[in-house]
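Hi P.,

Sorry for the delay on this. The queue was packed all week, but I finally got your sequence through. Input first:
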Amino acid sequence: MIFQRVFRLASIPLMALWLSAAPAVAQGLLRDSDIEYGLKQLAAPVLSAAGLNPNRVKILVVNSSSLNAFVIGNDAIFVHYGLINRMNNAPMLQAVLAHEAAHIANGHLVRRMGNLASARTATGLGLALAAVAAASGGGAAAGGIAIGTQASAQARFFKHTRAEEASADQSGIRFLRSAGIRPSGMSEVLEIFSGQEILSESRQDPYLRSHPLSRDRLRAVEGFVAAYSTGEQDDPTAAYWFERVKGKLSAYTRAPKWTLRRLKDTPYPDVRLLREAVAEHRQSRTKQALKAIDSAIAQRPGDPFLHEQRGQILFETRNFKAATAAYARAVNLAPNDALILSGYGRALLVQDDISGARRILEKARTIDFRDGSMLRDLSVAYARNGQQGMAALVTAERYALSGRLKDAEIHAKRAVGLLPAGSGPRQRAEDVLNAAERAAKRR
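Then the structure:
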């Protein structure tokens, strides 16, 4: 699992405009190919029922223990890891995803973005962009979330109206029913927040502050659930991926001893072993961690994510040769997963296979060009291969995507001076340079 903090905006120039509006308070994502794949399996039937493309709408995990979920654009749904850890079953998590998908499908965000754009102010546009983090081309994952501007304006942007909530509830329940998912998961989620509406706003969970809750809304949801429920049984595949997502996420976000005490609560042996491997690795008990992950692989030898987890354990304990072999196996099983490719490229780089690392990292970039750690490794690969212009370009992009436009400007100027005029890389460098210069003028 990787923590990343990266800005994702529609373009580098838009990023500059936002950065000029207010200082950023960045909040990152937890990136993990296994977890993101599992979330995709859970979300796919819901998104399809909503008329959205599951390959274009990413489900991304926010590095926050609070309870919240939100959408800012049409290409990503964000869920705090704290909310996932609080869910008890797959239909509950799928209900959260269905509700957020309804905000996209029902055009709530389009109207809100239009209202902000019409204000014609840097603050208004910056607010619209401030928490965007989503898929890059081809449905690949984005790098992170940035939250900024004045707190009061931000709260107004995030807070849905009661009419929007009622619409999203009804549509979400309809999507669940169309997907064959038990709609009662929606009411089970709202029960978590029941009673908080009487608390002062500062004591409420973020979800309640952005998703107004009332007795009328609860009653309406219960009515929708009763109308749409037809005795659906929980899908065993969804149940598995829910346990795997929550199990791995909790193993990384809770104390290792907490995880080890609760291994028997996990109904799937391979997930239990995966959780054990993560917990043991976090305690620097490498022998026990490898034993657990190898046992999990023995049960699911064709699972690329288990091989990637083995590679991560080996890499982080400096067994680079074995880590490279584990990542290679994972890539063979999932050749187009950007995060797995990124890990493999990093391992090759450490092994001094510069040409191999560059090739793999370039492929990862075409899938997910906003992966900050991959860009860092790719710049090293270019530099060690004598491609100083490309190294400067990728470094400039990495700094730009993390909001450090002064540093991005320095490297972009260098890249412009080294790259051939009229080439694609030269144009990318000029885009970063122009954005940085415009941001500097607004300071």
